[in-house]
Specification:
about 20% strand; binds pyridoxal-5'-phosphate; TIM Barrel; 6-stranded mixed beta sheet; about 375 residues; Lyase, Ornithine Decarboxylase, Chain A, domain 1; alpha/beta
Length: about 375
């Protein structure tokens, strides 16, 4: 008997990747950072590879090394390193590493010498996001340093890449300006005799809406989990995560009953309250107090009062809800992670990612990426 669970449909991840793969001539990098956006990094990676992804993307070296330690041999790119992180371990494990400036490239060179093999570098150009990467002014110096490191046998330049500001807004003109800046950066690189195999800039939104941004590789995160990065469009994606719990207790209360901490909700009639054993300690945002939608018995109810650490309460009216009934916070049907995002003023990414590393057991459905007999689950 389960009390609360996060179910992950691995076949949905595989099929979403296969759909993206079929929509582009570029290779697909499945982004599995942040514990696979809450879906589990390793099972998500395997399901994505089964769907035709040929690369995996993560933010940190630690994440990349965890993939390698668990037997993933596909190319893995890690793109966010503070000075002093053990890049040597990444080079030794054959992890591709981003270099966003001359100093960082120097760290890759040091790591390569220590590991006694060339570092696989992706040079990052900042085309306007003003997050990581070399500005247009810094770009020639980074290219000079990369050309020298390549000549010394310390670095192989595998990629040149950048990241979009507003690809989720199909009308944003900054996207065109960034594509022009990326083209300029590639031209400057050519003049430095740097023509890497992989040029990449597209996230999920650009993959789904800007074929002219695909280049050689697309870095898709949210879309592989079946959620749309562009409001109001579904693109035929299938959400992979369902968060649900069993009703722990029900009770009849009179009109005017205050509910949960602070009595931020009062019943307006005699009604049945249902106690749902999921709270902010599990990933339910506390901002969902009085607004988060939950389906129980076919009806979508709104959380009554404050979200607690371990539980929430639903006001179910005269519905015949009983202990043990299944209450679904979000899944492939309504309510969805998008409904939750709209209710609390965030994005679907945050809703699912909050359930990563959660107290709630993750249960995997489907066969995608599970090797015969390896019994990988949970
Ligand atoms: C997270 C991330 C992605 C994936 O973005 P989605 O919008 O989830 O597709 C791609 N590239 C970089 C650099 C990222 O940080």
């Amino acid at each position: 008997m389960w009390q609360a669970e996060v179910r992950i449909d691995l076949d949905a991840i595989r099929d979403n990747v296969a759909m993206l793969r079929a929509s582009t001539r570029a290779e697909v990098m499945a982004v599995v950072k942040a514990d696979g956006y809450g879906h589990g990094m390793l099972p998500s990676a395997r399901a994505a590879l089964a769907g035709g992804a040929t690369w995996l993307g993560v933010a940190t070296l630690t994440e990349a090394l965890a993939l390698r330690a668990q037997g993933i041999t596909a190319p893995v790119l890690a793109w966010l390193h503070a000075p002093g992180v053990p890049l040597r371990d990444g080079v030794a494990a054959g992890v591709d590493l981003s270099a966003g400036g001359v100093a960082q490239l120097g760290e890759l060179v040091e790591a390569a010498r220590s590991a006694q093999r060339p570092a696989r570098a992706h040079l990052k150009l900042d085309t306007g996001l003003a997050r990581g990467g070399a500005t247009a002014d810094e770009w020639p110096a980074l290219l000079d340093a990369a050309a020298k490191a390549r000549a010394d046998g310390d670095v192989e330049v595998v990629g040149i890449w950048s990241h979009f500001v507003s690809a989720d807004d199909p009308g944003a003109e900054i996207t065109d300006r960034q594509l022009a800046a990326f083209a300029d950066g590639l031209a400057v690189a050519e003049r430095h005799d740097i023509r890497p195999r992989y040029r990449h800039i597209a996230n999920s939104a650009a993959t789904l809406s800007r074929p002219d941004a695909h280049f050689d590789l697309v870095r898709t995160g949210i879309a592989i989990y079946g959620l749309s990065p562009i409001e109001g469009r579904r693109f035929g994606l299938r959400p992979a995560m369902t968060a649900r719990a069993r009703v722990a207790q029900t009770k009849r209360v009179p009109a005017g009953q205050g509910v949960s901490y602070g009595h931020a909700y009062h019943t307006d009639r005699e009604t049945t309250l249902a106690l749902i054993p999921l709270g902010y300690g599990d990933g339910v945002p506390r901002h969902a107090s009085n607004v988060g939608p939950v389906e129980v018995g076919g009806a979508v109810r709104t959380i009554a009062g404050r979200v607690c650490m371990d539980q929430v309460v639903l006001d179910c009216g005269d519905d015949p809800v009983t202990p043990g009934d299944v209450a679904t916070l979000f899944g492939a049907e309504r309510p969805t992670a998008d409904d939750w995002a709209a209710a609390i003023g965030t994005i679907n990414y945050e809703i699912v990612t909050r359930f990563g590393g959660s107290r709630v057991p993750r249960v995997y459905d489907g066969s995608a990426g599970r090797g015969a007999g390896d019994g990988e689950a949970g």
